[in-house]
Amino acid sequence: MALAAVPAPVLRPSPAAAEPAYSFAAGPARLPDAVLARAGEALFARGGDGAAAIERPFTGDAFRATLAHARERLAALLALPANYRILFMAGGAMQHFSLLPMNLLGASRRAAYADSGYWSRRAIDEGWKQAAVSVVATPPAGAPAAPDVSPGSGWDIPADAAYCHLTPNETADGVAWAALPDTGAVPLVADVTSCFLAAPLDVSRFGLLYAGAQKNIGPAGLSVVVVRDDLLERARPELPAPFSYAVQAAQDSCVTTPPTAAIQLAALVFDWIAERGGLPAMAAANAAKAARLYGFIDASGGFYTAPVRRDCRSPVNVRFHLADSVQDAVFAAEAERRGLFHLRGHPRVGGLRASLYNAMPMTGVDALVDFMADFMRRRG
Amino acid sequence: MALAAVPAPVLRPSPAAAEPAYSFAAGPARLPDAVLARAGEALFARGGDGAAAIERPFTGDAFRATLAHARERLAALLALPANYRILFMAGGAMQHFSLLPMNLLGASRRAAYADSGYWSRRAIDEGWKQAAVSVVATPPAGAPAAPDVSPGSGWDIPADAAYCHLTPNETADGVAWAALPDTGAVPLVADVTSCFLAAPLDVSRFGLLYAGAQKNIGPAGLSVVVVRDDLLERARPELPAPFSYAVQAAQDSCVTTPPTAAIQLAALVFDWIAERGGLPAMAAANAAKAARLYGFIDASGGFYTAPVRRDCRSPVNVRFHLADSVQDAVFAAEAERRGLFHLRGHPRVGGLRASLYNAMPMTGVDALVDFMADFMRRRG
């Protein structure tokens, strides 16, 4: 074999060894320190059965206990109403752009979608492959913001729409919905990938929620679906079994071998959230981090700009920019030399972005703000 | 939160602490000791960029280098012809039961399938949802065995079949195909989940191969597809992007966030195989393990029976049984007390089964044979 072992990534050390480094990536994102510290033993240490967690059969008692624990812990965190089911499925959120119409259209051919930015448009693009899509809301003119949801704001949802889809937190655009629309009898379906578990959530407002794991749940390659019982009855029998929410619900997410190690890690993250005080505590910490960063940006006299309209600013994907794209690039490159990584904005949106999910400590935000202040002093 | 942390699985310690325990599960299966020893640091240790491998963005240089390494290493192990592509996809093998017809039917509506046991029948069941299925071969009468492939054995593959599907190693039935059929111009497509990387394989005989990772590749939640270029041209544009082999090939398996940690682990396994001498070395070790176990069974004077016809015995899923199902259950329970786990056969097949994938050392087979000899002395 001519290939050498894969080289370790070449990483510049941060200038002071004592100074920690932070990844502000939008995802895969940072895991909680405490989870990372336990993960090696939790997944890879062999037990008296000659197997580590990652090696145990998904049909065995040990994995089934972990799966039940993950499901029950998540239900407790969400205060889940009794008529909802939790599914753990391999793969990310994007597959659900297709699985939603495949599972939920039922006798209808129509689905309604709100356009609030890059990811909702990706969902719309995939939705068109399966359904007649009605785009029922678009972003307002002016600063990036979520569509208007006030009474009389003109949401015209077709009565035959099987569901209405929206993206409450637009990861790329840094836009969060301040309020949800009234969709009447049409079930609200939401891609909550980047805001799931970042704050309390009234599940009963939704027919279905889905989230990729790689922000606040765990590793990439897992997604969580929370679905109201009655929507499971719409599934067509010819749907591929692993892609059927109804079949997955009936078989406790084990239609086929599930991503067992990813679910084990998710269980550790759910435990960590519970130990820290649940979703209210996550929301308080996330609000404090966002206030610190947006507050500094707003007080920078225009050196830094947060372009999103204030009432729609995402608390977890903080978008900002400097005077021009050249300055943005200089900023991101200098930040890396200070141990602050992955601050470039989404390629389709540009500028800069700091993702501050649950696992980002305030010390990371402090380090970023300190660098931003220093950069401004030198360049302002 | 009322829930306590998930309890560690209750495992009886093996009687002598010095005696190692082994899982003979069909999957998720044992990982190589050397991979398990490195995995914690490889995935969970933070680097100078403030991120561990499991936390790094899939768009970054570090993950892209790992992905390229995994792809190139696997291509080298397979001696992959230049006109084949390797895809890493989230989820297991079963999704491909549906993705195959979705991707490969092209203008045809027909696909041919060989029935050789439980898993090929599962593929057929899902195939029917998308295609007109022609079952072109069935198991022979008598002992479990693969369909006859000798010239004149009556394979009647419709000329308009988009592909012919078979399962060269039936994990549940313990049946391996001794030879492949001649399918003429119809591309041969194979579910190689339980035999992939266990021995050299002439990829050029196949149009497409797919395998779930949880046997010889790595953790559950990842699958590998090896596909000939020309078959990618059949994909319909309305296919969901993450499910399109063509789109995944064009975007190097990164249409959506891939299961980055699982791919990282797979790269470690591929390295381990290469370091041990590649697929010829795996085949030699697997043949020695199988010979030891089947040899003992055959020499047991009928106390143990290996029911599969000799020329079709799987070298990696060794099926055997005792006089009756009660004895099988006693055997499996006593084996656990000796540190030998997951020896029950697949529920649909019954009996006993020892899975001996690449990572099972000969010491595990020795421990099993020692126990079998002891059990026979006491019960025979």
Automatic annotation (TrEMBL), chains A, B:
According to the record, cofactor stoichiometry and binding are noted as: Binds 1 pyridoxal phosphate per subunit.
Q: Modified residue N6-(pyridoxal phosphate)lysine is at which positions?
A: 215
Q: Name one GO biological process term.
A: L-serine biosynthetic process
What Gene Ontology cellular component terms go with this record? Answer: cytoplasm
Q: Where does pyridoxal 5'-phosphate bind?
A: 119, 171, 191, 214
List GO molecular-function terms, semicolon-separated: O-phospho-L-serine:2-oxoglutarate aminotransferase activity; pyridoxal phosphate binding
Q: Which UniProt keywords apply?
A: Amino-acid biosynthesis, Aminotransferase, Cytoplasm, Pyridoxal phosphate, Pyridoxine biosynthesis, Serine biosynthesis, Transferase
Q: Which domain of life is it from?
A: Bacteria
Against Pfam families, the record matches this protein to:
Aminotran_5 (PF00266)
Where does the Aminotransferase class V domain lie? Answer: 22-368
**Subunit-structure text:** Homodimer.
What this protein is called in its record is: Phosphoserine aminotransferase
Q: Origin organism of this chain?
A: Azospira restricta
Gene transcribed to yield this protein: serC
